[in-house]
Structures are given as C-alpha cells and as structure tokens.
Prior knowledge:
Strand order of the largest sheet: 2-3-1-4
Bound molecules: adenosine-3',5'-cyclic-monophosphate
Subcellular location: Cytoplasm
Structural class: alpha+beta
Radius of gyration: 14 Å
Number of helices: 7
GO biological process, one term: UTP biosynthetic process
Domain Nucleoside diphosphate kinase-like: 2-139
Helix content: 25-40%
Keywords: ATP-binding, Cytoplasm, Kinase, Magnesium, Metal-binding, Nucleotide metabolism, Nucleotide-binding, Phosphoprotein, Transferase
Distance between the termini: 16 Å
Organism: Bermanella marisrubri
Largest sheet: 4 strands, antiparallel
Amino acid sequence: AVERTLSIVKPDAVGKNVIGEIYSRFEKAGLQIVAAKMIKMDEEMAGGFYAEHKERPFFKDLVGFMTSGPVMVQVLEGEGAVLKNRELMGATNPQEADAGTIRADFAESIDANAVHGSDSTESAAREVSYFFNEEEICPR
Length: 140
Ligand code: CMP
C-alpha cells in the first residue's frame, strides 16, 4: 500500500551538510518527498514529539540533542514507505547498522544517529500531523 512516513534529518547530519545525500537515498529508493521544512525545535516541541520516551533514562539527552541545532523534517510517500524508510536508515545504534544504510554511513552514536523515521503506520499518522497540516502536504 502507498503510505506516508515522517522523517527527520537530525542536527548532526544537518551540521555535516549531508541533507542532500540523505534525500537522494529516499528518492533512489522510490520515496517521494511530499512535504519538507527546516526547523529549530524548542524543548516543548521535541519533548512532545518524543512523549512516548518520557520515562526513559535517555529522554533528557534526546531532547537536548534534538534542540541543539536545526533539523529537516519531511513526509515521505511511497509503496511501503514506513518499512522502506526504516531499511534505508538502518539500526538505531549506528554500530549495529548494516553497511550502506544512512546510519552506518553518516551517524556517530545512538543519540547523534543522523535520522528519525516513524516505526509504524500508526505512529507515522501521529508524527506527520505533529509537524504538518494537510495543506502543507503536496502529493504528486
Ligand atoms: P529515534 O528514532 O529518533 O527515536 C528515539 C531516539 O532516542 C532514537 O532515535 C535514538 O537517537 C535515541 N536513543 C538514545 N538512547 C537510546 C536507547 N537506549 N534506545 C533507543 N533509542 C535511544
């Protein structure tokens, strides 16, 4: 099925100037970028986005990292977009990510891991609407 998923290029990858290289991987895999914006999140915005992790020991560091610089937020659309994006990203911990994945190639650590991607169609729906109105999404 054609799906939408929420993708974030995190502050480490924006800082390394590899937004375009990461976008190329989405496009080469047949995913279309149907909405995108650069934002600098504040604590409230990042904390709300990661609310499901609120009780986790890494929550404070995660919010600190995600507010440390600008991020690119995009909606990817395509056949099986949620899983396809997760395959392109590789494992959360870049040390465990398969060769050729975005995290293997661009990420340094489990916090500075270059990208985020929704983990299910349910979280994709929530995450897309967290950042975008329906009018901001431009399917072709
Ligand atoms: P992300 O897909 O953005 O979702 C939550 C983030 O928390 C995750 O990527 C990691 O960057 C970060 N994180 C830090 N420590 C952990 C951990 N032990 N398990 C899962 N995620 C972690």
